[in-house]
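[Meeting: bench + compute handoff]

Bench side (C.D.) handed over the final construct sequence. Compute side (W.E.) agreed to return the predicted structure before the next meeting so the bench team could plan truncations. Sequence as handed over:
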Amino acid sequence: MRKIIYPEPLQQGDTIAITAPSSGLESDLHHLLTRSKANLEKLGFTIVEGETIWTNDKCVSTSKEARVRELESYLLDDRVKAIIPPWGGEFLMELLPLINWEGLKNQQPNWIVGYSDISTLLFAYTLLTGYATAHGPGYVDIGPDKVDDTTVKWLEVLRTQQGQRVTQTSSSQYRSSWGNGQDTPTRWEILGDRISEQFSGRLIGGCMDTISILIGTEFAPVEQFSEDYCQDSGMIWYLESCEMNAADIYRHLWQMRQCGWFNNTNGVLIGRAAGYSPCKNFELTDALQKIFVPLNIPVLYNVDIGHVPPQMTLINGAFAEVVCSDGKGEITMTFS
């Protein structure tokens, strides 16, 4: 049984690199980058911003060659302790064939943090190297002067030592639309008729819209990862979606199941779906029931993961214990 390798805990004074391996920001949004840099510097970090973050055209920051060159320069820089892209995008998968994966396996890892299309990189990176990665807020999400109690936990998570535990609890409210603050009571739901649920296993997952395209490629060796790292613990999948209706979600989950991704799975966490709509009278719960009830896998949904803020920071590869009762949930991760 192989062991997950965790980057060094993030400390005050460390260098954080900002690069855009997927989408950058147009000029009218550059104030978000300026704000984020100022506030992370207040927290005591040295911020290095790459050239890719300042531009965006045809859904990407710049060419795939320039994006991978800047990303690898930070991954291979011993001075950089964390890499945080500004946000997601659409076409990060273009970089995966260009990355020197064997070279990265010989390098001490640093934290990579993000969600949406960034989870394409996180997912492949952990599966291929056994290095832990952090599915959590992007650079622009952690830039405001006041960050909510759920999102702000990203820093505590990344400061966790190997062998230690860190606990995150469900939020009190979430943001129902981008124009509002957190205005809607959070309630984690349990699929089926159980009033409470608990399970444990090693975390793996990301944004279904993007990681599902890796099925059948060399960049998604899920079964090998399960055999190498999860034989004793089993897995917990966490999945969230953006711009997918209930039928889309069902089709993606169906393909994952057919490819054996849910073998050795002890539980599933489904984030609040962004841009969601039912397909006629076919709902999200119908999709989840069709996939997971025959497998006897417990499912929690409307969890604080992904595109509908706030979101927890979940570590790919970490051992997690999940409990949920009466709409409230708790995830405790052990860096083992």
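W.E. noted at the follow-up: Residues 216 and 259 are 8 Å apart (CA to CA). C.D. will use this when planning the next construct.
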